[in-house]
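TEACHING EXERCISE
Course module: macromolecular assemblies
Task: Read the component lines below, then compare them to the predicted structure of the full complex.
Student: A.B.
Group: 4
Components provided:
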Amino acid sequence: MTMIFGVPLMVLTGQMLIGLINGSFYALLSLGLAVIFGLLRVVNFAHGAFYMLGAFTAWMLGQYLGLGFWPSLVIAPLIVGCVGAVVERTMLRHLYELDHLYGLLFTFGLALLLEGSFQHVFGASGKPFSAPEALTGIVRTDFVIVPIYRSWVVVASLLICLGTWALIEKTKIGSYLRAATEDATLVQSFGVNVPLLLTLTYAFGCALAGIAGVLAAPIFQVSPTMGSNLIIIIFAVVVVGGMGSILGAIATGYLLGIVEGLTKVFYPEAANIVIFVLMAVVLLLRPAGLFGKEY
Amino acid sequence: MTTVTRALLASVVCGALAAGAQAEPYRIGVLTDMSGMNYDLSGKGSEVAARMAVEDFGGTLLGEQIEVIVGDHQNKPDVGSTLARRWIDEQNVVAVVDLPTSSVALAVQEITRQSDTALLISTGGSSELTGASCSPSTAQWTWDTYALANGTGRAMTLEGDKTWFFLTVDYTFGNALEADTTAAVEAAGGTVVGSVTHPRETSDFSSYLLQAQGSGADVIALANASGDTMTALKQAEEFGVTALGQDIAGMLLFLTDVHGVGLDIAKNLTLTTAFYWDMNEETRAWSERFAERMDGKMPTMVHAGVYSAVSNYLKAAEKSGQAKSGTQVMDTMRDMDIDDFFNHNAYLRKDGRVVHDMYLVQVKTPEESKGPWDYYKVLRTIPGDEAFRPIEQSACPLLDR
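Instructor-supplied answer key:
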């Protein structure tokens, strides 16, 4: 068997691939956070709860309406986006004038509320959710064993991430968005409906979390706490990438996924903390993050 | 001072005196996980089971009311021991019950040992609790890591699963379960080829599963619990573990875990349990009463264990004529035959172990199952003396040697 640094090649490639898969979720989630923070300046602590909501919505669509994975993949994020829009319109909106801390506290409270209610209704064990028939099974080569569904997740999330990036950087609506980030008052005086833009942005960010949730449902147990287990890592990813940087969030998501995967091969005990060690180092050397702009 | 204030003061003083003179009810404290991953397998159901036991006993002990109170220890030893101490010091709690998460159970056992309060452990399962850390006022009622290791580990090794690889959760319970299973596997002629530890509440087992697959072992043993076990089972299916010829051993599986992952994934797993609701008339009768109060959810082995532990505790306390000294109640219980729907001809040992029959069961396939909660078929009854650690092997310092 081929060995690299005393580790069988198969284990190494396997872990890199797994890193890439986890990185896909990190990227999707931190992307939504970065979009929301970039425009609204809200640290959205409810992001993990929206991710959980996406997974549960997909489960409920299947359970109560008999919808399969594919329709759920479209409908569940739309529903989560609508919930996000309602939250922004009715509650979050009133906090923009205040200190950022209030937005953070509000979203944190919202996350606890959502998790608590779901736990009360559905229990802590969570619900089973199967991958679509067409994507079950594994690919087995000499180098690696990987489930087909997971490889598909990598491709799907890459497409979604690049699509979002193009939407924000290359389209007209994206240019409004970026302009509003720089100076909302000026953009509004040009006749752009900035409050609507803010609502749509928050809804979009939440919908991204919802998509991640549906994608995660067949891999992880659909449980009320699935989001809170992940949210801290996602924040570390955003900080390393640079708060508000779209490309930074995507690239860092994949990068940290792979770093974490490799750590599991060479020093498994550190796998849990390697992301945070990296975060500390980046903050020391480049306080604005790897891709962030110094203000 | 006006007459009104004087009258008020007097009534306050009288009220206080009256309250002081009135005897406090005996309280039974269910200390469990009401917010985390053990909520379904223990949590609310344990509270319901304890209340049922008190109601069935008549609601009074030695002429005083019995009250059940519940606390959430959040799976944290410091939270659990603070709560237990406050209950005992301030709220007249005479028995602390349930205790999921062995690390919390071990911490609380130190408190109840000092205060000589009865500790009825149903969910906590480290065999350490009745081993080196044993206490005279403790009864470990339902299961322990030795019994599961011995039941499942031995049976599977004899069936031909000779080489084992462990996925072990990295705290006292996981370590105990791995050590006990290793001993059982080796005694039955198998070998352990490797193990990997993971933190509690891991969401991604893929890298551990890859290592386990790479080891080429006959069986991958999951020495973890509830949420972790369910995630690992689900992802093992995804990585084609059984399809590629390896077996899976869920060393600790509760009925709610099987319910959580579904029969498609859990089918054909062999496991050891202390109780299954659909074994006979008695178990069905009790379980249906339980399910009525739990929105149709059937009890896990630890729910049944909580009921059995509390009702037998009350009998023993009544017989010993007092409830303050947990050790005296337990000594009375040691002389009693423990006999109810949960266990027949069981007895409490000096090290705190309740010895009763265990059951080796197999999870049904979706075709065999007639509906929700119809999950197990019993393969074999393991007699208590074979299921649990022989007293000669116990490291409990209370045993005279």
